[in-house]
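Long-time lurker, first post. I've been practising inverse folding by hand and with some scripts of my own, and I keep getting stuck on stretches where the structure tokens seem ambiguous. Below is the full token string for one chain I'm working on. Before anyone asks, I'm not after the true native sequence, just a reasonable design that respects the backbone. If someone could post their per-position residues I'd love to compare against what I wrote down in my notebook.
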């Protein structure tokens, strides 16, 4: 329970269905000590923890706080920093879901002799031929299936998503109907919990002392390698970025490639962002045990991506993905998620574009 409307209504619905509910709030990050410029917000704030506890007390079930800051820092934050230093674009929310939150929840569930865990994600869990898999939620604008590709069979077997059949507006109305008017109007946060000011560049500088000096003197080049100017350091740019590149260009420029070994950032036109394929590693399968070579799947390369039809080929421990029509802005480090209709076949981390 983060203290937000989705996890709170999840607890309400499970309680009303007759489950013996135990509320768990996970403390993942202490933003007060991070040096950021914005007040602590979201699921890590004291206010949010207190909101979750108040609802639990009001509804008559136990509430616990689980401190996972050490695990979160060792895995999610270290990976976040390492990926930018490697010239890639990380996706910390997926790592947190896959390796931290579910693991911590299941451990606590076992300790409390709980059979299931329930979260406020907008997604479905289905089963076919003995395998569990994520499917898209009814509310396509809130669907979170993309960020859940890493869940294991064990995790999905023991997870419930009670919000799957509802839209966000219906969830807000449920809260209001149950007397939680303030909660029903509570704003949502789309920021990374440990970078609530959305300034990841400053976060990297604070996290890696001397980074700014280490990567100073980098250059912008065009597609042919011609010098275009200087930049602040390759970790401070992402594939597809258009703003913050400086002026003096006759046409809009986009980051099309990052070369960390040379501290070079390649700029091009929008058409230079198009890619016809990619290599995907760290693959987790859901609906099927494996891909058949040449299998077609709708492939998303970022959250809220419309998806593109692609053919999937097995390459040792990786997947080679060939798009049937070029796709814009394939960024190494981001996740590729493969769908059959609304069902998640599996997913992985983009290693490189082709």
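-- Answer (accepted) --
I ran through it position by position. Result:
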């Amino acid at each position: 329970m983060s203290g937000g409307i989705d996890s709170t209504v999840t607890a309400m619905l499970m309680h009303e269905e007759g489950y013996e509910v135990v509320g768990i709030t996970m403390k993942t990050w202490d933003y007060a000590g991070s040096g950021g410029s914005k007040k602590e917000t979201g699921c890590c704030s004291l206010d949010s923890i207190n909101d979750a506890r108040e609802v639990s007390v009001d509804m008559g079930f136990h509430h616990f706080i689980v401190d996972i800051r050490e695990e979160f820092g060792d895995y999610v934050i270290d990976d976040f920093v390492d990926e930018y230093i490697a010239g890639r674009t990380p996706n910390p929310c997926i790592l947190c879901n896959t390796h931290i939150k579910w693991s911590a929840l299941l451990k606590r569930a076992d300790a409390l002799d709980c059979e299931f865990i329930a979260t406020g994600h907008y997604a479905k869990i289905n089963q076919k031929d003995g395998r569990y898999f994520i499917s898209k939620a009814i509310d396509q604008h809130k669907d979170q299936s993309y960020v859940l590709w890493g869940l294991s069979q064990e995790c999905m077997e023991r997870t419930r998503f009670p919000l799957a059949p509802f839209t966000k507006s219906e969830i807000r109305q449920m809260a209001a109907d149950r007397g939680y008017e303030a909660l029903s109007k509570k704003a949502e946060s789309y920021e990374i919990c440990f970078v609530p000011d959305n300034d990841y560049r400053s976060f990297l500088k604070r996290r890696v002392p001397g980074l700014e000096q280490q990567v100073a003197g980098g250059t912008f080049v065009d597609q042919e390698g011609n010098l275009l100017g200087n930049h602040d350091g390759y970790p401070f740019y992402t594939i597809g970025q258009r703003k913050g590149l400086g002026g003096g260009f006759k046409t809009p420029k986009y980051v099309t490639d990052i070369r960390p070994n040379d501290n070079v950032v390649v700029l091009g036109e929008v058409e230079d962002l198009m890619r016809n394929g990619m290599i995907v590693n760290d693959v987790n399968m859901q609906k099927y045990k494996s891909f058949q070579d040449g299998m077609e799947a709708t492939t998303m390369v970022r959250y809220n991506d419309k998806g593109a039809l692609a053919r999937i080929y097995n390459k040792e421990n990786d997947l080679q993905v060939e798009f049937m029509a070029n796709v814009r802005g394939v960024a190494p480090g981001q996740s590729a998620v493969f769908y059959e209709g609304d069902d998640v076949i599996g997913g992985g981390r983009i290693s490189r574009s082709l």
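A couple of notes from the structure itself: The domain at 216-268 is CATH 2.30.30 (SH3 type barrels.). The chain has three domains: 5-120+162-184, 216-268, 274-353. Happy to go over any region you disagree with.
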